[in-house]
């Protein structure tokens, strides 16, 4: 069906397009005949030859969705146009096919998800960003907030559907979701159908935007707006700004909303100002609430706000009624009663326990006032008879409000499934409701009755029968019920029936289930008696037939949400108005508005005009990412440049200059905007000679997003901007000095992919001053993938160059040229450079203090055993480097989020992790840069290379080479290096800068920033750290720090650091490092009867080949020293720990690795024994048992039972012996979940699988094969304690508290729903201690 409809639609449009083309050719008359040769077309008709040739050019497929009204929101217009078609012609074609007047609508892009207006000034579709051969999605939207004008039939552009209202199904209910194909008639449902949804200009009404889940609010607001008496009264109230903030004034914001609903030209308006006055934040928009609950809460808030004003009693005058809650003795006729007030009448759909629902509102009203007889145990104590007597209890209506609200109680609770449900039974309601049969015709003061004071204030808006009280106090509360006339109650009830005829004018409909759904309102206008559907932003005409479809129906019916809910669409709240011509009001017209409302209308009109102008500006504003390397902050700044499409490049440059805060830093004429690719750090092109070109043309039109960015490039006053031409590639050239084994900062060079290697070398020679004849060029295509470019005539494209590239060049007379590249010094230098990483090392606080005397550290080199000091005597001492490094390193923090932020700033401010440091001295473990290095702009190339410039201090003997951000990224995109492959030339010279961390985790904690070759082993790395830790490598441990500061010890000394990457954090802790065959073990104490059964004790070391008894002997002094536990070796055991569950008991003669599997970071339980160990053999089974006492509603403590076999019979015998329960009465069940298998005492008796029919424990459903299983047992003859409701509730609270502390899920805890509240003080107050 889907495909057929789409193909049919496209075919119709294509046929119409061809008809239009033929009609145009005929209309053009002789002029076409003179200029064009006519040729046969595919349809065997003559068409101009030019049109035939046009078909050969690329075509642009445009798919247009009309979102201006709900009728067309699911329709799509498809146009297949030549690529040379102008945008104006596209507008004309869309106007013709959609049936609109051209110029009264807008087209906008939707390809990227955002809606961006289409630039009508562009010449052709291709220039506007359309792609030939692909789908181009557009939306047809309102222009300036006004809907498109429909073209008249005379113009020949009538509605393309060709259908009038009478030929289509009428609509009521939720609108179809996005993606629904076809027109409204394509959707069919047995619950409701679609009608023609008229334009706003035809209905004359404005919709309300759904913030997220505020459909219930929209339905109520539209109902109140369509109530003349409420709207007029609201208009007559005048807001005093001096007394209250307009933002928090609920009546004022409602007044503004109603004015906009009546006067706005928009299709729909927002309700955010109203909800803000409620004190709601954005999260409230995502809360679903009940419309009847909102009605009560809003009315209460309005009453509070209107106190001491003329509108103080407005809600009561319009919506409040009275009823009598009575009990009459059937023996003496004595009656006790009280007066209650109500704002709505809740009508039961289906009585409790009944299978048949009430068929109509009249039946439900009759049942509402139907009295019930109190007899038997429910007899009523009569004050007159002085005894319990049979009585009749019920409700009588005394007064109906002017506006009668009926709530159909469709939401109920199913005690079978214990879930909330929605009742979708059919319940009819009349258009005119006669309430005279339901009024109390008896005198309120009959001789046999006793008068009682109203309790209206206490029970306002509520009229449940259970509100009756036998204690009728005369000072309950004053009567808030206000009659609309001056007649007495007796006179009022004797009025003719015509005065109690109510007219239906609003039906609030719910579509969905008890879990959620959608509200909308069907409202009759009192102006023209026409029914309308107010469905959020869509307003449409409906008929009485559509109202009847909201009665509800059988469970087999399905609503719009049938895919998500098993529910239906039916009426939930009904609003009636008393038919009384003398009191029925009409809406105030604009010319009759009070003066303060006229002023408000004028202000809102001006505000709309301002919004219209702002939208026009937004439509023509280009928004693009802007980057700039700030010359002072020395970091890449990012911002968004918003510039009008008609602004010139020169004006845009000035805007970017101010946006980047460069005033007073560099002159404006030293800045220019260039096209930039931030991802590849590639300067695509510059705009020489185009300074006066509009930005709209320069950027290719106004779009939601661009495939490129802009860079504000800065030059020095003595420099000249280099032109960047399209098609060039950027190459960052690093000059390598083999003598000093350093790699210089990158120099940016632009080249063409068509250039040869020889030409490229000449280009590099011009930029660097090197000799092209002896030059070697090495391309780094990806991480550590080095390729020597040696074929002179090969092009850059053939060598694999891309937009942004990185090369290393070397030009010297050394004999290294003659060596094979992979054996050359150059390759080794670059290889080491690519494998060097930066690590942050946190030293222990106990580390020996001054490093002043440690100016050298031993090498762990395969090539040399010379000391570092002897090899490089000219280097500065560690003390001198430390002094220089203090300022730079003091801001480095290894603490959580601060460290990450400061690392980024450190990398951007000083790209000082230089390649030269990575490669100098053959070192695998190297220096950080000297902080004495300063920026020397004169010695560097232009800052347009987009990297930080740092020049080496000439006195500093540490060669330094700067790294751009891209270098860092390339170095970090690490691939694994084979741990066996270590270059023999790699030494492990070690020197790093300690830093005292004042803001760290501890006072005086030192931090090292080290550079290390990640191909060295962990053992070599630890040896290099020895001078800084101050103890041998066997006496400290290395912990790798992961996210959230989680630490894991690195113990595999033979593994390399290949899994580490730049800026990883390492913590050094003092303590004996593990030897081969040793494992670190965490010991926890098992306390089976404690609320917290698992308690950490200490860390220790177990070795392969050690017996359990030997490990216990080593534990004894540690337990005494660290945990203050003085134990005997025979009075505690070790056992397996799996998460929180105790497992296998380890026997003293067991050997680790042979009998017991052991691994790194192993965990075991230590259990203190009250008696000597009873476990002697692995064939035994130790289970933890716990008795359940139903008569006392409690669980006894755990007791261990040791079994010789897995026999159920033996288990029962041991339990019988332990508890004294006769064997035939003993029942047991296995515990569920993790230890201690907590369960509520309210659930254990029936929820566990008691007395399973098995003979052994190691079969289903028990599967008890290991020690530590939990067994509950009970006496089957013991009866469960009977609890009163109060006792059960109290026990439930205690159990809930207990189980929540242990992490057990309380299955009977009800789901908490957020209450609907309106805050009169501007918003909720949060508990300071609450997160």
From TrEMBL:
Residue ranges annotated for the USP domain, each copy included: 206-579
CDD domains listed in its UniProt record: peptidase_C19C
Bias type Low complexity, positions: 893-917, 973-992
Region described as Disordered: spans on this chain: 145-187, 439-470, 847-877, 890-1004
Bias (Basic and acidic residues): 918-929, 960-970
Pfam families (alphabetical): Ubiquitin_2, Ubiquitin_USP47_N, UCH, USP47_C
Compositionally biased spans, kind Polar residues: 149-165, 448-470, 847-858, 932-959
SUPFAM superfamilies associated with the record: Cysteine proteinases
PANTHER family linked to this entry: UBIQUITIN CARBOXYL-TERMINAL HYDROLASE, UBIQUITIN CARBOXYL-TERMINAL HYDROLASE 47
UniProt name for this protein: Ubiquitin carboxyl-terminal hydrolase 47
Organism encoding this protein: Cirrhinus molitorella
Lineage of the species this protein comes from: Eukaryota, Metazoa, Chordata, Craniata, Vertebrata
């Amino acid at each position: 069906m889907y495909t057929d409809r789409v193909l049919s639609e496209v075919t119709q449009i294509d046929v119409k397009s061809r008809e239009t083309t033929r009609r145009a050719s005929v209309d053009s008359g002789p002029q076409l005949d003179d200029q064009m040769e006519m040729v046969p077309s595919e349809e065997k008709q003559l068409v101009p030859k030019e049109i035939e040739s046009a078909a050969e050019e690329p075509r642009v497929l445009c798919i247009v969705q009309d979102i201006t009204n709900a009728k067309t929101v699911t329709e799509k217009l498809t146009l297949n146009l030549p690529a040379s078609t102008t945008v104006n012609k596209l507008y004309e074609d869309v106007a013709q096919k959609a049936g609109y007047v051209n110029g009264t609508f807008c087209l906008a892009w939707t390809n990227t998800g955002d809606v961006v207006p289409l630039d009508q000034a562009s010449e052709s579709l291709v220039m506007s960003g359309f792609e030939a051969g692909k789908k181009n999605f557009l939306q047809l939207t309102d222009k300036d907030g006004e809907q498109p004008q429909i073209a008249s039939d005379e113009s020949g552009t009538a509605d393309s559907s060709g259908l009038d209202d009478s030929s289509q199904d009428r609509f009521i209910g939720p609108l179809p979701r996005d993606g629904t194909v076809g027109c409204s008639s394509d959707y069919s449902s047995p619950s409701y159908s679609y009608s023609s949804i008229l334009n706003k200009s035809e209905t004359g009404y404005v919709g309300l935007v759904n913030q997220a889940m505020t459909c219930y609010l929209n339905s109520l607001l539209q109902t109140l707006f369509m109530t003349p008496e409420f709207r007029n009264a609201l208009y007559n109230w005048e807001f005093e700004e001096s007394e209250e903030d307009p933002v928090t004034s609920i009546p004022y914001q409602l007044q503004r909303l109603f004015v906009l609903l009546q006067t706005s030209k928009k299709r729909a308006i927002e309700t955010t100002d109203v909800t803000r006055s409620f004190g709601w934040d954005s999260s409230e928009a995502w809360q679903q609430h009940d419309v009847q609950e909102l009605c009560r809460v809003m009315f209460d808030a309005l009453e509070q706000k209107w106190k001491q004003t003329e509108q103080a009693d407005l809600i009561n005058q319009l919506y409040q009624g009275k009823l009598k809650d009575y009990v009459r003795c059937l023996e003496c006729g004595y009656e006790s009663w009280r007066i209650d007030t109500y704002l709505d009448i809740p009508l039961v759909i289906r009585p409790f326990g009944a299978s048949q629902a009430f068929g109509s509102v009249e039946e439900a009203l009759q049942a509402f006032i139907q009295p019930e007889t109190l007899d038997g145990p429910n007899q009523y104590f009569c004050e007159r008879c002085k005894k319990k007597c049979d009585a009749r209890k019920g409700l009588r209506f005394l007064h109906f409000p002017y506006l009668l609200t009926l709530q159909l109680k469709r939401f109920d609770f199913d005690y079978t499934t214990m879930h909330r449900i929605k009742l979708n039974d059919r319940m009819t309601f009349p258009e005119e409701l006669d309430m005279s049969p339901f009024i109390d015709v008896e005198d309120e003061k009959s001789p046999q009755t006793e008068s009682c004071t109203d309790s209206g204030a206490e029970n306002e808006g509520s009229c449940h029968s259970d509100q009756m009280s036998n204690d009728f106090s005369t000072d309950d509360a004053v009567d808030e019920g206000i009659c609309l006339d001056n007649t007495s109650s007796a006179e009022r009830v004797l009025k003719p029936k015509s005065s109690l005829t109510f007219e239906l004018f609003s039906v609030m409909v719910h579509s969905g289930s008890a879990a959620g759904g959608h509200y909308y309102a069907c409202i009759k206008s009192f102006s023209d008696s026409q029914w309308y559907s107010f469905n959020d932003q869509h307003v449409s005409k409906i008929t009485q037939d559509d109202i009847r479809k909201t009665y509800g129906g059988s469970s087999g019916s399905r609503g719009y949400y049938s895919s998500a809910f098993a529910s239906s669409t039916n009426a939930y709240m009904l609003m009636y108005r008393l038919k009384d011509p003398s009191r029925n009001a009409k809406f105030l017209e604009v010319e009759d508005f009070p003066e303060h409302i006229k002023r408000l209308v004028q202000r809102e009109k001006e505000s709309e005009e301002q919004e219209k102008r702002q939208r026009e500006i937004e439509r023509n504003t280009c928004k693009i990412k802007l980057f700039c390397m700030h010359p002072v902050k020395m970091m890449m700044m990012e911002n968004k440049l918003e510039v009008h499409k008609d602004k010139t490049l020169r004006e845009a440059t000035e805007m970017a200059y101010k946006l980047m805060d460069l005033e007073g830093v560099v002159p404006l004429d030293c800045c220019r905007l260039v096209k930039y690719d931030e991802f590849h750090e590639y300067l695509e092109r510059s705009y020489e000679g185009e300074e006066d070109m509009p930005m709209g043309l320069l950027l290719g039109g106004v779009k939601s997003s661009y495939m490129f960015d802009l860079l504000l490039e800065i030059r020095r006053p003595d420099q000249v901007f280099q032109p960047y031409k399209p098609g060039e590639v950027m190459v960052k050239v690093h000059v390598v000095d083999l003598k000093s084994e350093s790699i210089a900062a990158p120099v940016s060079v632009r080249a063409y992919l068509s250039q040869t290697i020889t030409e490229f070398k000449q280009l590099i020679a011009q930029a660097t001053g090197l000799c092209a004849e002896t030059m070697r060029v090495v391309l780094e295509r990806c991480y550590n993938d080095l390729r020597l470019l040696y074929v002179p005539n090969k092009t850059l494209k053939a060598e694999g160059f891309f937009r942004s590239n990185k090369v290393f060049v070397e030009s010297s007379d050394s004999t290294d040229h003659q060596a094979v590249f992979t054996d050359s010094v150059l390759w080794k230098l670059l290889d080491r450079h690519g494998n060097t990483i930066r690590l942050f090392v946190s030293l222990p606080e106990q580390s020996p203090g001054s490093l002043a005397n440690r100016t050298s550290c031993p090498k762990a080199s395969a090539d040399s055993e010379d000391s570092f000091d002897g090899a490089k005597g000219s280097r500065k001492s560690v003390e001198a480097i430390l002094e220089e490094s203090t300022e730079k390193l003091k801001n480095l923090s290894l603490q959580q989020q601060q460290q990450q932020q400061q690392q980024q700033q450190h990398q951007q401010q000083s790209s000082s992790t230089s390649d030269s440091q990575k490669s100098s001295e053959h070192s695998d473990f190297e220096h950080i840069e000297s902080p004495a290095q300063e920026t020397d702009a004169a010695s560097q190339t232009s800052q347009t290379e987009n990297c930080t410039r740092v020049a080496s201090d000439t006195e500093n003997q540490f060669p330094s080479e700067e790294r751009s951000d891209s270098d860092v990224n390339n170095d970090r995109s690490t691939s694994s290096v084979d741990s066996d492959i270590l270059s023999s030339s790699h030494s492990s010279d070690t020197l790093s800068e300690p830093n005292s961390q004042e803001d760290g985790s501890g006072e005086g904690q030192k931090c090292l920033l080290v550079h290390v070759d990640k191909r060295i082993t962990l053992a070599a790395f630890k040896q290099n750290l020895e001078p800084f830790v101050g103890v041998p490598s066997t006496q400290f441990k290395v912990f790798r720090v992961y996210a959230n500061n989680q630490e894991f010890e690195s113990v595999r000394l033979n593994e390399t650091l290949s899994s580490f990457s730049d800026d990883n954090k390492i913590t050094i802790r003092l303590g004996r490092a593990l030897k081969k065959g040793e494992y670190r073990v965490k010991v926890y104490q098992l306390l089976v009867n404690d609320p917290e059964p698992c308690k950490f004790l200490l860390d220790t070391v177990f070795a392969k080949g050690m017996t359990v008894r030997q490990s216990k002997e080593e534990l004894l002094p540690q337990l005494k020293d660290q945990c203050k536990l003085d134990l005997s070796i025979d009075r505690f055991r070790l056992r397996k720990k799996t998460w929180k569950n105790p497992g296998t008991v380890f026997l003293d003669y067991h050997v680790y690795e042979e009998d017991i599997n052991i691994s790194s970071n192993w965990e075991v339980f230590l259990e203190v024994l009250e008696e000597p160990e009873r476990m002697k053999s692995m064939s035994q089974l130790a289970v933890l048992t716990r008795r359940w006492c139903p008569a006392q509603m409690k669980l006894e403590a755990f007791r261990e039972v040791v079994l010789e076999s897995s026999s159920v019979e033996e288990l029962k015998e041991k339990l019988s012996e332990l508890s004294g329960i006769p064997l035939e009465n003993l029942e047991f069940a296995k515990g569920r979940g993790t230890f201690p298998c907590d369960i509520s005492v309210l659930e254990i008796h029936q929820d566990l699988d008691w007395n399973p029919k098995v003979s052994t424990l190691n079969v289903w459903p028990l599967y008890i094969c290991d020690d530590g299983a939990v067994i509950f047992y009970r006496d089957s003859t013991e009866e469960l304690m009977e609890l009163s409701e109060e006792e059960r509730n109290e026990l439930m609270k205690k159990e809930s508290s207990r189980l929540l502390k242990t992490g057990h899920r309380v299955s009977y805890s009800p789901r908490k729903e957020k209450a609907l509240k309106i805050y009169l003080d501007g918003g909720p107050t949060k508990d300071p201690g609450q997160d």
